[in-house]
Design brief:
RNA polymerase II transcription regulatory region sequence-specific DNA binding, 2 helices, single chain, elongated, mainly alpha
C-alpha cells in the first residue's frame, strides 16, 4: 500500500476540519476573567499615558498647546538629561 494514501474509511475525519479543533486556553475562559483582564489592560494603558503626561510636564517645553507624541517626549527627555549631565560635568 502506498504510504501517501490513507485507508479508505467511511468515518475518516480530516484533521484540519473545524470538527477537530483543539480547544485553546482562551476557549475555556470565563467571561469574568476576560472582563478582569481587559480592565487590567485599560488600567495599564491609562497608567502609561499618565506617566508620559507627567514626564511632559517636567520637561522644559514650549507651551504652545500642541501635544507631542510619546516618541518625541522620550527624545526630549533624553536630550534634557544629556544637557543636565553636561552642566554637571562642566562644573
Amino acid at each position: 500500500m502506498d504510504q501517501n494514501r490513507r485507508p479508505a474509511e467511511t468515518n475518516y475525519i480530516d484533521p484540519y476540519s473545524p470538527m477537530c479543533l483543539v480547544p485553546l486556553p482562551g476557549h475555556w475562559c470565563d467571561y469574568n476573567n476576560v472582563r478582569r483582564r481587559n480592565q487590567r489592560e485599560r488600567d495599564r494603558v491609562r497608567y502609561v499615558n499618565e506617566s508620559y503626561e507627567t514626564l511632559r510636564q517636567r520637561l522644559p517645553l514650549d507651551n504652545n498647546n500642541r501635544r507631542i507624541s510619546k516618541v518625541q517626549t522620550l527624545r526630549y527627555a533624553i536630550e534634557y538629561i544629556r544637557r543636565l549631565q553636561k552642566i554637571l560635568t562642566d562644573m
